[in-house]
Write a structure and sequence with these properties.
It is built from 23 helices and 9 strands. About 60% of the residues lie in helices and about 10% in strands. The protein has a 6-stranded mixed beta sheet with strand order 5-6-7-3-8-9, with helices on both faces. A 3-stranded antiparallel beta sheet has the order 2-1-4, with helices on one face. α1 crosses α3. The radius of gyration is 34 Å and the shape is elongated. The longest helix is centred in the N-terminal third of the chain and has 48 residues, at about 50-95. The protein has helices at about 1-10, 10-40, 50-95, 105-120, 125-130, 130-150, 155-185, 185-200, 205-210, 215-240, 240-270, 275-285, 295-315, 380-385, 410-415, 430-435, 440-450, 455-460, 475-495, 510-525, 535-540, 560-565, 570-584, and strands at about 340-345, 355-365, 370-375, 395-400, 415-420, 500, 530, 545-550, 555-560. Bound molecules: adenosine-5'-triphosphate. Adenosine-5'-triphosphate (ATP) binds near residues 349, 356, 378 and 381. Keywords: ATP-binding, Membrane, Nucleotide-binding, Transmembrane, Transmembrane helix.
């Protein structure tokens, strides 16, 4: 039913046409049964006018069948396209919902979402989209067969149809058992198996897999992990076979019994030849209530996928199958620098017992440039993710210009961030700098300020930054970082009031990073900027430097470079250590 509702939403007009064609075709099939019966029944009376009449009826109905089927195929193709577009919209919403990313840290939830999204790309889902008409049509023709048989012995067609429906029901739930399980519960073993397979096949791991000679080892571990993951499923499937066999036996008995009754009635002379031929066809037609081959399997799979998609959407707070209500666009729009406040913020990742940040208070006045430094795991990136509203704090508040970025879309858009693992879009250089529209001036200025003008001169705006496309190119780590920086600068031109660079410059050498940060502070003067880096020489020119304690235990030092050097504490120690190593 879910599939019908989605189809209707996606394309009401073509769905109605498909339904009309399906009903007509079912009626034609039913009339054909009667027509053939009457035609055969009229034969003993030699070629009378009645024979010719029924011959004509049968011929017309036989011709109408293929015409209706071809029309239905064309309309179904139309419906399927609209349906798939609608489903992919529903899937796209799953990808970007909710605002935060906390749910993606829970392995089960993240891999279930991935499994559902992958299933909607699977051929069985794509082909299953049209299967609904291949089921509804025959089922309607089955109703026609019941109507033909009712005047004879009403309980016989009902019993035969029920036995076919029973087989269909039991078989579908047996098929769906495995498919639902694959979608609803992923389990560690299946996740591991899928990861190992991706290591064998993905470009990112191709180098190491070859250089370390990992192919055989990975194949063996993948195979055994996959068997481990699937064994339980296969066991369940085997145990579900009993009811299928039982239902098939019941169905065989009822069909056999129905034919035996026709035979007895013909022998007793209570049923004519025409009646017997019509009824035999009708009983055979009742198998339309049964499994219906590939269409049935495809429909079962596609129904399971839709159900899993609806469940995932509901868990994410989206309506099950309709589009999400449009977010009210905030009217607040400003290009001024933003003020940032974190008050008593504590936060722990769901998968970890300890807190990544505890009781952190930090105020950044509008327009100030601040560097956040600290040892690995001190919570620098976590702080930035809270600031972007990707996570909500367990305690305390995060505010950008007084608004909570976790719930306020306008506040979130005021924060432009380039993370260490920024995305390298397989898109033209232009789109890598600004995804959306921007004037050529903004594009060029941003790329120039990020030190990437040479890239433009060499490749032009339209070269795709991926070798997977004709004429495309890949960039070095440092060149990619300049493109990412240009993206951040363009965001400021577009209205962002806080600019955050969370170590996106690690691939640059020390001197290049320091020069870039200096230029960055220069061109973003007046904008609130937050720099995260391990290289203290690179961030020394920030207005203010905040040192986070290890283990997320808050701020240990806070001041300008000169003040912290005078303090001779943690920062001065780290700075001295790095400077000595660099000098050596
Ligand atoms: N998604 C996550 N799930 C669970 N724990 C996480 C996650 N991300 C970070 N952590 C943990 O939270 C703590 C703080 O991590 P965070 O990445 O904020 O540190 P960081 O100061 O940015 O470190 P680095 O300098 O190495 O980038 C670490 O102990 C880390 O293991």
């Amino acid at each position: 039913m879910n599939q019908l509702r989605v189809l209707w939403r996606a394309s009401p007009v073509w769905s109605a046409v498909a339904l009309a064609l399906t009903v007509t075709e079912a009626a034609v099939r039913t009339l054909l049964m009667v027509g053939i019966g009457q035609f055969v029944g009229s034969l003993p009376a030699s070629a009378s006018a009645r024979t010719w009449r029924w011959f004509l009826v049968v011929a017309v109905l036989l011709l109408a069948g293929p015409i209706l089927q071809s029309s239905l195929a064309a309309v179904t193709a139309r419906c399927t396209t609209a349906y798939l577009v609608h489903v992919f919209d529903l899937v796209a919403e799953v990808g970007v919902h909710p605002r935060g990313i906390g749910h993606l840290d829970t392995p089960d939830s993240a891999s279930r979402i991935r499994a559902v999204v992958d299933a909607t790309r699977d051929w069985s889902f794509v082909t299953g989209a049209g299967a609904i008409w291949l089921i509804i049509g025959p089922r309607l023709a089955g109703l026609g067969a019941i109507a033909v048989l009712l005047p004879w012995r009403w309980w016989v067609p009902l019993a035969v149809a029920a036995s076919f429906l029973l087989v269909s029901r039991v078989f579908m739930s047996w098929i769906s058992l495995a498919f639902d399980k694959l979608l609803e519960t992923t389990g560690d073993a299946r996740r591991r198996a899928s990861y190992l397979r991706s290591l064998l096949t993905r470009t990112e791991s191709a180098k190491e897999v070859r250089l370390f000679g990992l192919t055989d080892w990975l194949s063996d571990v993948y195979r055994s992990t996959w068997y481990e993951a699937m064994t339980e499923l296969w066991r369940e499937r085997r145990s579900g076979l009993g009811p299928v066999l039982l239902a098939c036996s019941v169905m065989a008995l009822t069909v056999g019994g129905a034919f035996a009754l026709i035979g007895l009635d013909v022998t007793a002379g209570t049923v004519s030849l025409a009646g017997a031929v019509t009824m035999a066809q009708a009983i055979l037609r009742l198998q339309n209530f049964g499994v219906l081959g590939d269409a049935g399997t495809a429909l079962a799979r596609s129904t399971s996928t839709l159900r899993a998609l609806a469940n995932v959407r509901q868990e994410l707070g989206l309506p099950a199958i309709g589009p999400a209500a449009a977010q009210a666009e905030s009217s607040r729009s400003t290009h001024a620098a933003a003020e940032v406040r974190l008050d008593g913020v504590s936060f722990g990742y769901p998968s970890r017992a300890t807190q990544a940040l505890s009781n952190l208070t930090l105020q950044i006045p509008a327009g100030q440039s601040i560097a956040i430094v600290g040892v690995n795991g001190a919570g620098k990136s976590t702080l930035i993710k809270l600031l972007c509203g990707l996570y909500e704090p367990d305690q305390g508040t995060v505010r950008v210009d007084g608004a909570d970025p976790a719930v306020d879309e306008a506040a979130r858009r005021r924060v432009a961030v380039i993370f260490q693992d920024f995305v390298r879009y397989h898109l033209p250089l232009r789109d890598n700098v600004v995804l959306g529209t921007a004037t050529d001036d903004v594009l060029q200025q941003s790329l120039t300020d990020a030190g990437g003008l040479a890239l433009l001169e060499r490749h032009g705006w339209d070269t795709v930054l991926s070798t997977e496309y004709d004429g495309g190119t890949d960039l070095s780590g440092g060149q990619w970082q300049r493109v990412a920086l240009a993206r951040a600068l363009a965001a400021v031109a577009g209205g962002a009031g806080v600019l955050v660079l969370d170590e996106p410059t690690a691939a640059l050498d020390v001197r290049a990073e320091a020069a870039l940060f200096e230029r960055f502070l220069e061109v973003t003067r007046g904008v609130t900027t937050i720099l995260v880096s391990h290289r203290l020489s690179s961030v020394r020119h920030a207005d203010r430097i905040v040192v986070l304690a290890s283990g997320g235990e808050g701020i240990v030092e806070d001041g300008s470079h000169d003040e912290l050097m005078r303090l001779d504490g943690r920062y001065a120690e780290m700075f001295g250590l790095q400077a000595r190593r660099f000098a050596q």
